[in-house]
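Researcher: Re-running this chain for the archive, since the previous output was lost when a drive failed. Same request as before.
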Amino acid sequence: MLGMSLRDQITELVEALIIDRGLEPGDKLPSEREMCEMWGLNRVTLRNALKRLADYGVVKSKVGLGTFVAEPKMVRNLQDTKGFSQAVTEAGHVPSHRVVCSELTEANKFVVRHLRVMLASPVLVLKRVNLLDGSPVSIETSWINVRNCDGIEKHDFSVESVYQTLENVYGIIATMGSEKIDVTKIDDEEAELLGVEVGASAYFQSGLIQDQDGKPLEYFKCVVLPEHLTFATEMRSVERPKRTR
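Model: Regenerated structure tokens:
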């Protein structure tokens, strides 16, 4: 097709094949040899296209088994303040967590800058691997202002929701926030925790959550695997000013 790269043309062919054959998530695609013969391709070109589709979450390759239609990605709305557990549960999936670090500490200059608390104020540092239906999908590190949260360090956040604990036990509600999204490469520690290769592409989120009084509650950083999660936002029309004659 005019203006399209060969890789993009092949990705369209594969997607059309999935639709035409009515393949569902978990169904196997024809072998690489069969697809190369169908479209007169070499394997290197086909594999480049399949890798692009895997990055998009359309297909999933399994070593020694072949290429399969991937399960649909979960979509997270950037305009809500739902925690991971709530968002995943409402999407019909099962959330779980592995706690890497949960420590009550004193605010240093880094925390003071982001949470706008006094130096040495109590802060909970929580680092968890978030799992979606048993598969690791992200690593989230949070610095939470826990000045009025006596005993919060005793909670087991491998099974408890942070936001629900804050609301139900301490009356603190996460109501608004701001965040940024970028792309990054997985480092050695992240690769081990997520079970992926070093250098794999990932989303990088960082942001600030405020409580019902507009005070900084949580600063977070999160590395997210794009194979399982994607993000969406709502586009709204902008009211144009009326012209005056």
